[in-house]
Amino acid sequence: MTTVQTPSQLAGFIVIVAICYPPCLFVAGLALRRTRRMARILTCYPWQAYSCAYPHRTVESPKAVVIMFSEEYTPVLRIALHSGDLSRKQNPAPTQIWFAGDPRYGGVISPVGGHFPVRVVPERLGERVPAGSPEADALAERAELVRGGRVSTT
Question: What's this model's pTM, rounded to 2 decimal places?
């Protein structure tokens, strides 16, 4: 037995598809672009373990993590796009974080275990950012952490 669609039902279906389809395509494209960016960073940089801390912030402010790369350089990195609480996200070692990227420009972080990778960007570029070698700058450019001399913040 076949069901016959009336013209009014077909028009309603077309309106719903016309309204919902473009935003769904946009969101899917954005997610694919961000996933490819994280994959590019992970192919250029290895995971490394660092000590970290999570600064206390208001509920509305974006989540951030302070990674201790060295005694002199401990930047505040903002978690881009997601505001997941990595200190509680199935994290057996909340004072440790895995980081892949350039400490000056951000990269990808994950709780120990690698099960929740997210992109991080510098909250603010300070004057105390250590200078990098030309090779490190070229690698950051290839990973698209920096484009045309500007730090990518998304």
Answer: 0.76
